[in-house]
Amino acid sequence: MSKPTSSHPTFPDATLVQTAQDLLYEQAMVQIQGAWAGTLAAIPPKSPRTETIEPDLNYSELFIRDNIPVMIYLLIQGKHDIVRHFLTLCLTLQSNHPPTQGIFPTSFVEEDGKLLADYGQRAIGRVISVDATLWWVILAHCYVERSGDRDFALQPEVQQGLQNYLNLILRPSFRAAPTLFVPDGAFMIDRPMDVWGTPLEIQVLLYGSLLSAIGLMQVAEG
Questions:
Q1: How much is the CA Rg of the chain, to the nearest whole Å?
Q2: Among candidates 25, 171, 149, 158, which has minimal Cα distance to 90?
Q3: Would you tell me how many other CB atoms lie within 10 Å of the CB of residue 219?
Q4: Which segments of 44-130 does DSSP mark as H helices, in order?
Q5: What pTM did the predictor assign?
Q6: Are 215 and 145 in contact (CB under 8 A)?
Q7: Using CA atoms, how far apart are residues 174 and 64, in angstroms rounded to an integer?
Q8: Long-range contacts, stretch 76-85, CB < 8 angstroms, 24+ apart
Q9: Pairing between strand 114-118 and 107-111?
Q10: Are 135 and 209 within 8 A, CB to CB?
Q11: For 144-201, what is each residue's pLDDT tens digit?
Q12: DSSP letter string over 135-170?
């Protein structure tokens, strides 16, 4: 029996990697405050089709969650300055207003030289994601471990950000937040699973972020 063939064109691995790098560095990456900061949610189309795009869609913004794999790749490539800049920008946007103090925005954008953060008011569905907050701590720990930049973790702003984060997620009411709930049947293998209130990926992410927070605080303790 002959081996089934794909109708999709095939490319050498090196070509795929080069194409991805070209898209990343030449089209997706954007500068904020004069330095490279991360990637857009979606690369704008080259053809003029703006009339078909809703004006309030936030595809031109930088999403914290979506930029995590980008930042990991940049760490591997040794571009530590971009990752540090991204982490610092996110930290400046951490909420300081009760009852959301400690939470990070879902996305942000620079307009007229000012950073505009989206805490759910511009997001599709008008909701704020919990995972952006959890991912920031994990990325910060990965950055310090990979780059050896202990001074980043020692900054008072970073340690205060960690304290605000812990004050947020360690409150008993945090587990009752609607953003942590999922309805039964949202996950399925061969049948519906009883997962009401316990979304696995958020629980794992929460555990990982707590471990990362411990690692960053231990740096400060010497």
A1: 20
A2: 158
A3: 18
A4: 64-76, 80-92
A5: 0.79
A6: yes
A7: 21
A8: 76/146, 80/143, 80/146, 80/147, 80/149, 81/35, 82/35, 82/36, 82/37, 82/38, 83/139, 83/143, 83/147, 84/143, 84/147, 84/149, 84/152, 85/32, 85/33, 85/35, 85/36, 85/37
A9: antiparallel
A10: yes
A11: 999 999 999 999 999 999 999 999 888 876 665 655 555 555 555 555 556 666 666 7
A12: HHHHHHHHHHHHH--HHHHHSHHHHHHHHHHHHHHT
Q: Which helix (H) or strand (E) holds 201?
A: helix 200-221
Q: Which residues contact 36 (CB under 8 A, 6 or more apart)?
A: 29, 30, 82, 85
CA distance 135 to 77: 20
Residue 75 corresponds to which tokens in the numbers above?
A: 């760490």
Partners of 107 in the β-ladder = 63, 118
> d(Cα 132, Cα 136) in Å, to the nearest integer?
6
Q: Residue 192 has which token pair? A: 């519906």
